[in-house]
């Protein structure tokens, strides 16, 4: 694979064993190349959701030896934790993205801080890492395997029976939103003589 790698890992990615993510130059443009044990499932999800705004875009797939790589557009910056108004705007954008995915017949199934980014050039928040994504039918049935997702952001229903639905997606988003807004509020509260002094902004 003729990729000039500039980084062996994208922030928030490649946490699972068997996953490799490279950032580099591909045919004159900056891209992210990813391979994992669930690369076929991620390819299917990306192909099915390319028309959905706020989802990382697949450029092409490449087979190198026995390894399949997905070449994708690079994601943007991590979501900020302040100011609070910006945090809440991004939460609204992510909720809209969940709705659009649902309308397309899909659930992300791994909503967490690590899989959300501010996408260039729009500056709006969206999702990456669709390796755990499922169609609505697949999500309702469950797989009989361990529940997919990032534990600290998973809904109670998903932890109990391994299934996903729209409400569990929103519950994951609310968990993430609660964390983000708490940090945003804390960043505005500056100790002053033993008291909290709130900054405007």
From TrEMBL:
Residues 70-173 form the Fungal-type protein kinase domain. Signal peptide: none annotated. Coiled coil: none annotated. This is Fungal-type protein kinase domain-containing protein. It comes from [Myrmecia] bisecta.
